Amino acid sequence: xxxxxxxxxxxxxxxxxxxxxxxxxxxxxxxxxxxxxxxxxxxxxxxxxxxxxxxxxxxxxxxxxxxxxxxxxxxxxxxxxxxxxxxxxxxxxxxxxxxxxxxxxxxxxxxxxxxxxxxxxxxxxxxxxxxxxxxxxxxxxxxxxxxxxxxxxxxxxxxxxxxxxxxxxxxxxxxxxxxxxxxxxxxxxxxxxxxxxxxxxxxxxxxxxxxxxxxxxxxxxxxxxxxxxxxxxxxxxxxxxxxxxxxxxxxxxxxxxxxxxxxxxxxxxxx
Length: 271
Fold this sequence. Notes:
two-stranded antiparallel ribbon
């Protein structure tokens, strides 16, 4: 087109994704060229971040799937014993005595690079009718994602105390999300609990964690728990739902003897 007698080339709309080279075309304004290069740099960085996050998560979670159910039960027993006997920083015995059910997830994996993911496998058990003794263990999975500043991988031992009927109802369902379906609060530590906040008193579940690795702590907010059907099948040699295992008369398998013994030693009866 012409303007005031001078010819000016009209190149039409400029698609910003068509300039892979750092050298800007001579006819592009300087500010737009910088914007193009910044956009392309950000896009490449995002692709790299997603690739790293996928690599970290895949390696950590694949290793966890290789662990046999017997070994995971023993690890669950060790986790419970250690967290109950952690001097003034352990789970209070009086809270365990009041709990309806317990969920133990040993070595839950958390990995990420900006975008993170959680994955773990463990077991739940509930009081038998009358409050004396514990049910056979039902296998559980915990999964979840997060966004925020984080890099690396860690393992965290998790114990959830299910304190009331509402929490037990969620545990017996097909799946539930902490902070969404079920309310949970960080549990107090120490020998006895003389001062509890309203959140602790009203929470359906109390959570405890022991971290190892690069993360100082962990939040289960947004994590989803569901039955681990594969592990249940391996443990009981048949299909069984978590509701059937936790509320029925399933005999505790020999592989869970150490886990059962740890529970009976620390809290044989519900108060």
